[in-house]
């Protein structure tokens, strides 16, 4: 079972299960991607992230054992950096009963179905956003336009400043809520039909 649905972390369990001939649980711990290991439904329910095993492409491995999930995150991040910046991890050892109670179910199927809906709409020349909302049983809340801003950062502050006028195209934006996915999204896309930019959650 992947710990999150998003990015590479949602596919690695499929590869491992395929090589080992094991089934994959159609669930995860957040129904989206997350920045830190303790930010999942398993951790909220009190399931410990430790022991966590980390391994890199050279076969180097480490076992992380800590008292709470926040400390597991801090230690694992430091170990990951020492191991080259990329590791695969196994954590949140739990029983089937715990997984049934605390995982978010059906998220792998949802991701696969959403990808199929987008691919079908793109091949048919249909509106991608409408297809996404249709698959997720979502509803458009508003649409409008927004200006692009570039973020500039310094050591102690992060501030936003507008980019030059010539490089400031309008973006279409729509907020959408979906009972199927369980969160609201704000999707931005260019003025050309069916050309979507990445969505950002609000």
Write down the overall geometry: elongated
Number of domains: 2
Mean pLDDT: 78
Q: Helix and strand string, N-terminal first?
A: HEHEEHEHEHHEEEEEE
Q: What is the straight-line distance between the termini?
A: 26 Å
What spatial order of strands do you see in the largest sheet? 6-9-10-11
What portion of the residues fall into strands of 2 or more residues? 25-35%
* Poorly predicted ranges: 153-175, 181-202
DSSP summary, beta strand count: 11
Q: Report on the biggest sheet.
A: 4 strands, antiparallel
Radius of gyration computed on alpha carbons: 20 Å
Helix content: 25-40%
Given helix and strand content, the structural type is alpha+beta
Number of helices: 6
Structural description of this entry:
It is a single chain. This protein is of the alpha+beta class and 202 residues long. It has 2 domains: 7-105, no CATH class; 127-201, no CATH class. It contains 6 helices and 11 strands. The protein has helices spanning 12-20, 41-44, 69-82, 96-102, 107-124, 128-136, and strands at residues 27-28, 52-55, 61-64, 88-90, 104-105, 139-147, 149-153, 158-162, 170-178, 183-189, 200-201. A 4-stranded antiparallel beta sheet has the order 6-9-10-11. The protein has a 3-stranded antiparallel beta sheet with strand order 3-2-4, covered by helices on one side. Strands 1-5 form a two-stranded antiparallel ribbon. A hairpin with a 5-residue loop joins strand 2 (52-55) and strand 3 (61-64). Helix 5 packs antiparallel against helix 6. Residues 153-175 and 181-202 have low confidence and may be disordered. Residues 1-65 form the S-Me-THD N-terminal domain. InterPro entries: S-Me-THD-like_C, S-Me-THD_N, S-Me-THD_N_sf.
């Amino acid at each position: 079972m992947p710990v999150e649905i998003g990015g590479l972390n949602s596919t690695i369990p499929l590869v491992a299960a395929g090589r080992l001939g094991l089934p994959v649980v159609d669930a995860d711990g957040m129904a989206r991607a997350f920045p830190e290991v303790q930010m999942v439904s398993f951790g909220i329910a009190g399931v410990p992230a430790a022991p966590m095993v980390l391994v890199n492409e050279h076969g180097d491995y480490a076992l992380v054992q800590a008292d709470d999930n926040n400390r597991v995150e801090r230690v694992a991040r430091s170990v990951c950096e020492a191991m080259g910046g990329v590791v695969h991890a196994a954590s949140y050892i739990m029983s089937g009963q715990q997984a049934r109670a605390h995982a978010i179910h059906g998220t792998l199927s949802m991701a696969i179905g959403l990808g199929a809906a987008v691919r079908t709409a793109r091949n048919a020349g249909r509106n991608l956003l409408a297809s996404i909302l249709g698959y997720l049983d979502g509803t458009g809340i508003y649409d409008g336009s927004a200006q692009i801003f570039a973020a500039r950062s310094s050591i102690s502050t992060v501030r936003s400043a507008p980019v030059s006028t010539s490089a400031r195209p309008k973006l279409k934006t729509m907020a959408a809520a979906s009972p199927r996915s369980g969160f609201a999204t704000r999707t931005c896309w260019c003025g050309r039909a069916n050309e979507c930019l990445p969505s950002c959650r609000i």
